[in-house]
Amino acid sequence: MALDLSKVGERERLKPRREPHWQRLRTGCFLGFRPSKRGGKGTWIARAYDEDAGKYRVKALGDFGSLPGNEIFAAAKKRQRA
């Protein structure tokens, strides 16, 4: 079963761990979520494959703490594309 980070309930059920839980957006592009161990909203991470360098580029996107839970995925996805 594929992980759907757009659903608040699925994100809330994820166990905290060092490696983010990844959802593939398209070939070579992923959006990751790392749940907070302290009960916060968690942190979002973007990962995209750089063909010129031959490796993945990873960038922390933040927690989007000011947004309601149902809008966070869309905001993280938009920032990942940028």
Write the topology of this structure.
Blueprint: H1 8-13, E1 21-26, E2 29-34, E3 43-50, E4 55-62, H2 69-81
Antiparallel strand pairs: 1-2, 2-3, 3-4
Series of H and E elements: HEEEEH
Number of helices: 2
> What's the arrangement of strands in the largest beta sheet?
1-2-3-4
N- to C-terminal distance = 28 Å
**What is the number of E strands?**
4
Describe the biggest sheet?
Answer: 4 strands, antiparallel
Inertia-based shape = globular
Regions with little confidence, pLDDT below 50 for 5+ residues: none
Q: What is shown here, in short?
A:
The chain has 82 residues and is an alpha+beta fold.
Kindly list the characteristics that best describe this protein:
alpha+beta
Question: Would you mind describing this structure in some detail?
Answer:
The protein has 82 residues and is of the alpha+beta class. The chain is built from 2 helices and 4 strands. Strands 1-2-3-4 form a 4-stranded antiparallel beta sheet, with helices on one face.
